[in-house]
Amino acid sequence: MMDRLTALAVVDDVVGTDPLVVTCGATARELAHHHGRDSHLYLLDSMGLSAAVGLGIALAGDHRVWAIEGDGSLLMGLNALPTLGANAPATYTLIVLDNHQHASADKMPTQAEHVRLADLTAAAGLKTAVATAPDELREALLNARSADGPNAVVARIAGGNAANTPWLLDDPAAIATRFRQSLRIE
């Protein structure tokens, strides 16, 4: 099973400079530290909102938009799934990194131990793929890039966080400004 850093490297490679909304916690810290881009919107202290914020961006423009949620944050903001399905943005892909734990909160287990997230995304009307290895993740993301959405890619990853990842202490207003400028929104 791949770790989160490996999954994030694949995501970064496929997504490139497309807008990417990133959930809070270790996911944001690890992506910012290893693959930071101005086109990433890191939602600091905003658990469960990446899917919804990504939807708003997809509906407001003509960009291909990606959003990353962890299993815990998706379950916290589960109401975003039927809204995604109902609005059906063709340029939207939700990426769920599922490790069955709140890795940033002392590895506390999530309900993903008992709920199949891919079934939830599919039931909401998202074209869903599941990946457990880097090559499967790459293929699923490339397929999502070339298909009308909304799409979901649920990637099963190992638990835990990467060691020695620094805190993401950027001013949220500065993160938002860089992100808006990457979209060419002034």
Automatic annotation (TrEMBL):
Alphabetized SUPFAM superfamilies for the sequence: Thiamin diphosphate-binding fold (THDP-binding)
Q: Does the keyword Cell division apply?
A: no
What keywords appear on the UniProt entry? Decarboxylase, Lyase, Pyruvate
- Pfam families named in the record: TPP_enzyme_C
Thiamine pyrophosphate enzyme TPP-binding domain boundaries:
42-153
A GO molecular function assigned to this protein is: carboxy-lyase activity
Identify this protein by name. Phosphonopyruvate decarboxylase
- According to its UniProt entry, this protein's organism is Saccharopolyspora shandongensis
| Lineage of origin | Bacteria, Bacillati, Actinomycetota, Actinomycetes, Pseudonocardiales
